[in-house]
Design a protein that fits this description.
Number of helices: 2
Largest sheet: 5 strands, antiparallel
Organism: Hymenobacter volaticus
Region (Disordered): 1-22
Helix content: 10-25%
Protein name: T9SS type A sorting domain-containing protein
InterPro entries: Secre_tail (IPR026444)
Oligomer: single chain
Strand content: 35-45%
Order of helices and strands: HHEEEEEEEE
Domain Secretion system C-terminal sorting: 57-125
Number of strands: 8
Shape: globular
Radius of gyration: 14 Å
Structural class: mainly beta
């Protein structure tokens, strides 16, 4: 599992045994990761709130990506990670909005993970840069 994914799920990238931790859905974290390889969206709630999904389009992206997210609360942010675990971009999600535009033109070709965080939830979605 990539370190960025483990970190976004509250796991310790240095502890291989935490892959056996069961998530709220009853699956182990390893199973959640593997299931996420075939699903476009990975999500986990920081509390018992209802999980809402993220959508990233166009995917793959060349110049700009639109991220559709839950209504952003004050302090909501987006962090983009490369699949080798490097943080490549952090930006705020404007309070009260449901979409954030991300400039991808300067990113290298490859796969990325976007982590959306606000006071109630942490959501992630994968996208590709052509």
């Amino acid at each position: 599992m990539p370190d960025a994914w483990e970190t976004s799920m509250g796991l310790n990238p240095e502890d291989a045994t935490d892959r056996n931790t069961r998530g709220a859905n009853g699956y182990t974290m390893l199973e959640n990761y593997l299931n996420g390889l075939t699903a476009p969206v990975l999500a986990v709630a920081a509390s018992n709130s209802t999980t809402e999904l993220l959508q990233a389009y166009p995917n793959p992206s060349q110049h700009e990506l639109t991220l559709a997210h839950p209504v952003a609360s004050r302090g909501a942010s987006l962090t983009v990670y490369s699949f080798d675990g490097r943080k490549v971009l952090t930006l705020p999600a404007a309070s009260g909005t449901r979409e954030t535009h991300i400039r991808t033109a300067d990113l290298a070709r490859g796969s990325y993970l976007i982590l959306y965080t606000d006071a109630q939830q942490r959501l992630s979605v994968k996208f590709s840069k052509d």
